[in-house]
Write a structure and sequence with these properties.
Blueprint: E1 10-13, H1 14-18, E2 30-37, E3 40-45, H2 52-56, H3 66-84, H4 86-89, E4 95-107, E5 117-127, E6 130-139, E7 142-155, H5 156-162
Antiparallel strand pairs: 1-2, 2-3, 3-5, 4-7, 5-6, 6-7
Length: 165
């Protein structure tokens, strides 16, 4: 990755986020990400009613599964770190950020489909390849979740070996 100095803030659209992450299909819901500094991000995610998992989650009462909020926070934090953290930008391109732990999470309100969920994210380096992620998610200005996650960066080949691929 580039070692050029970064000028904050800068914004990534959906295509820019997708260029940093391996996620595709219904699991990828990131819409926009503002990198405010090396460890501070604001992002948005949206789950359409056409998402196949949403259609099977409480049919007739479509709400976003809480685990999707966790996944979106991890994706936004991962993309933000890869784009905006000078240290992570110097690491091997073959590293993949994975969700390593959900430390503390509270879901305050259900999230309706087809609504933007806004995330405010702060990350803290815990070790050379581990990052603590603290996020708050809101929709319409109302807090819907508070998330405390652990992300780790691992070589792609090590991850593939661990899953037997």
């Amino acid at each position: 990755m580039s070692e050029a100095p970064l000028a904050y803030p800068f914004v990534l659209d959906r295509a820019g986020i997708e260029g940093l992450l391996p996620h595709r299909g219904d699991i990828f819901v990131c819409q926009q990400l503002t990198i405010e500094g090396p460890h501070d991000f604001r992002g948005a995610a949206r789950w359409p009613l056409s998402n196949s998992i949403i259609q099977g989650h409480f049919p007739g009462l479509p709400v976003v599964p809480g685990v999707f909020l966790i996944e979106a926070a991890a994706q936004l934090a991962g993309a933000g770190l890869l784009a905006g953290d000078p240290y992570l930008r110097t690491l091997d391109d073959d590293l993949i950020g994975v969700l390593a732990g959900v430390r503390k999470t509270a879901f305050r309100r259900p999230v309706e489909v087809d609504r933007d969920v806004d995330f405010v994210i702060h990350c803290r380096q815990m070790a050379a390849l581990a990052v603590q992620v603290n996020a708050r998610a809101t929709t319409g200005g109302v807090e819907v979740a508070e998330l405390d996650l652990l992300m780790a960066y691992t070589p792609r080949q090590q991850l593939l070996a661990a899953i037997g691929a």
